[in-house]
């Protein structure tokens, strides 16, 4: 290992590419707050007698921070999220925390890959939650591009396995259009609307299929199933809960299936998931879109990947 040198490169991009990216952001109704930059981590052998090309490290096992100092002209309240540009001419959310230091504002972007990044202002108001308890979380996640179809968002409807996978993958900043992934499921088409997210979620072991080789994308999810998936997502963010006795607050915890008990305890301990009230966890009930969104935000906040 003493012969391996790791270089971190943050470089400005060609003006034509920057202009193209800024136009893309504008076309999507958002505003670019930081000129796009390229981030790359590479390793090379420093031994004189060894001739080896530099190798790019494109995927990390932990989130790697990129801290961007925001221009003085930027209103800190308008910093929505960092984005990563995809090879297909699109962009996706990456978890971003905004903070102030010595009178300056910064955006801390957390990502598991190399790529090209920027920061945007993208306020979204979801009409269906105007008078709903989930309003703040839903509007936040929609603005961060996690909720992919905010106009059709139905807060109290039971979420499907496919949409759940999409929310999780987008929230964690794993979604990359144009990326290739193995399809292990007999009922998932190559070009389906949720196929990419499902395959990425499966690759990171957040969601799994059934013994018959199916994924069942349209099936609804029980709350205990969801908590199991959130616990797997906690492994990606390296989140460990400290409130280990919290599960005892729920008088129906005994209804949790044996296979899910440890996962439910861990998710509750991390305050990622809440009960339907202060004493009921409702493990067998279906998870709603609003509940899924709130838990996704809790996961990011508790993992210190975004602001509260």
Automatic annotation (TrEMBL):
Transmembrane segments: none annotated. Pfam families: SLH. The keyword Ligase does not apply. InterPro entries: Cell_Envelope_Struct_Comp, SLH_dom. It comes from the Bacteria. Keywords: Repeat. Residues 121-180, 181-244 form the SLH domain. This is SLH domain-containing protein. It comes from Petrocella atlantisensis. The lineage of its organism: Bacteria, Bacillati, Bacillota, Clostridia, Lachnospirales.
């Amino acid at each position: 290992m003493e012969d391996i040198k790791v270089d971190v490169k943050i470089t400005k991009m060609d003006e034509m590419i920057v202009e193209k990216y800024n136009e893309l952001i504008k076309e999507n109704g958002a505003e670019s707050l930081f000129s796009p930059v390229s981030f790359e981590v590479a390793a090379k052998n420093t031994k004189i007698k060894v001739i080896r090309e530099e190798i790019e490290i494109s995927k990390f096992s932990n989130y790697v921070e990129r801290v961007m100092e925001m221009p003085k002209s930027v209103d800190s309240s308008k910093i929505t999220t960092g984005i990563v540009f995809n090879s297909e001419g699109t962009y996706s959310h990456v978890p971003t925390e905004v903070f102030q230091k010595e009178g300056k504002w910064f955006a801390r972007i957390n990502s598991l890959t190399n790529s090209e990044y920027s920061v945007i202002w993208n306020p979204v108001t979801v009409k269906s939650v105007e008078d709903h308890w989930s309003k703040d979380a839903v509007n936040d996640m929609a603005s961060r591009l996690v909720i992919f179809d905010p106009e059709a968002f139905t807060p109290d409807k039971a979420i499907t396995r496919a949409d759940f996978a999409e929310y999780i993958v987008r929230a964690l900043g794993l979604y990359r259009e144009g990326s290739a992934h193995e399809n292990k499921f007999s009922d998932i088409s190559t070009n389906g609307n949720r196929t990419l997210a499902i395959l990425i979620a499966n690759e990171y072991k957040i969601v799994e299929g059934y013994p018959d080789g199916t994924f069942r994308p349209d099936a609804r999810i029980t709350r205990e199933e969801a908590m199991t998936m959130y616990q797997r997502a906690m492994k990606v963010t390296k989140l460990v809960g400290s409130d280990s006795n919290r599960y005892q607050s729920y008088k129906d915890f005994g209804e949790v299936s044996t296979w899910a008990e440890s996962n439910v305890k861990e998710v509750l301990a991390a305050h990622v998931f809440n009960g339907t009230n202060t004493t009921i966890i409702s493990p067998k009930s279906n998870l709603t879109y609003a509940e899924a969104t709130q838990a996704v935000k809790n996961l990011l906040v508790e993992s210190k990947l975004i602001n509260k």
